[in-house]
Amino acid sequence: MTTGFAPAAQPSPTRSAIAAQVRDVVKTYGRGDTAVRALDGVNLEIAAERFTAVMGPSGSGKSTLMHALAGLDTINAGQVLLGDTDLSGLGERKRTLLRRDRIGFVFQSFNLVPTLTAAENIVLPLPLAGRPPDRAWIDDLVATLGLGDRLRHRPAELSGGQQQRVAVARALAARPQIVFADEPTGNLDSRAGEALLSFLRHAAHELGQTIVMVTHDPNAAAFADRVVFLADGRVVGDLAEPTAAAILSRMASIDAPATRKTR
Ligand SMILES: Nc1ncnc2c1ncn2[C@@H]1O[C@H](COP(=O)(O)OP(=O)(O)OP(=O)(O)O)[C@@H](O)[C@H]1O
Ligand SMILES: [Mg+2]
Questions:
Q1: Helix, strand or coil for residue 137?
Q2: What span, in angstroms and rounded, lies between the C-alpha atoms of 48 and 204?
Q3: 130 falls within a domain
Q4: For the ABC transporter domain, which residue ranges apply (predicted)?
Q5: DSSP 8-state code for residue 90
Q6: Has residue 233 been placed in a domain?
Q7: Are strands 226-231 and 51-55 parallel, antiparallel or unpaired?
Q8: In CATH, what number is assigned to the domain containing residue 95?
Q9: Measuring CA to CA, how many Å separate 180 from each of 20, 101, 110, 140, 199?
Q10: Ligand 1 pocket, 64 CB below 6 A?
Q11: Over the stretch 204-234, which tens digit does the pLDDT of each residue have?
Q12: 59 Cβ closer than 6 Å to some ligand 1 atom
């Protein structure tokens, strides 16, 4: 296995491997006739210090999966592990603490605090995480996301894309171990989107940040190291080092009626 050329300082493959994982996870919403099996036995390992994209049709379970991975929601069966910690075994309070200390989340609906300015929203998690703000890091985030001239405005005074960028800055501000971003480029024009995606890629590769991003856009997913495809609450595909063309062709084969299971 060893070539004898690996530098001694390199982390061992087993240590650096898995930031989070789900095992046989089932999540249902509702009961009886109206029950929806949003996750139907999902198994997935998220590599540490890598940028992973999650794709799939609307309603395929992407947001549900992100919420389960981040401990924002309970599951009906299976296991969710963050590093070595089994979230399914933790009570609400411990899950809250773990989220605060180790997880950043960009919600599909932004979830900004309406009474606070953009700047206040961005630094909101810092006192909670119990770490002093890293000013240079936050300045870098604000500049990369093009928010410099909007910092004193409240969410209602910002465009959808600007609110989205504030939500991204907030999720990354405390430099959490793992960041989950649910369609973070959904409201951005292509230039702002590419700046954000390049930054996420840089954060994973150069700064050791683990990132999991949901997207519908093959060009956005092509910035990631890997794309995982969901359909009907299951993992149905996995692409390493994806290109937009490879993603498109995989999406086409997943959507093909012949491969679609009936419900
Ligand atoms: N709180 C809820 N109550 C009932 N059903 C829900 C709830 N949240 C999600 N669902 C259902 O679970 C399924 C998966 O939803 P989810 O939000 O994970 O999809 P998604 O892949 O993120 O879709 P989109 O691309 O539209 O955001 C859908 O059928 C949805 O209607
Ligand atoms: Mg969603």
A1: helix
A2: 9
A3: yes
A4: 20-257
A5: S
A6: yes
A7: parallel
A8: 3.40.50.300
A9: 11, 14, 12, 20, 14
A10: yes
A11: 998 889 999 999 999 999 999 999 999 999 9
A12: yes
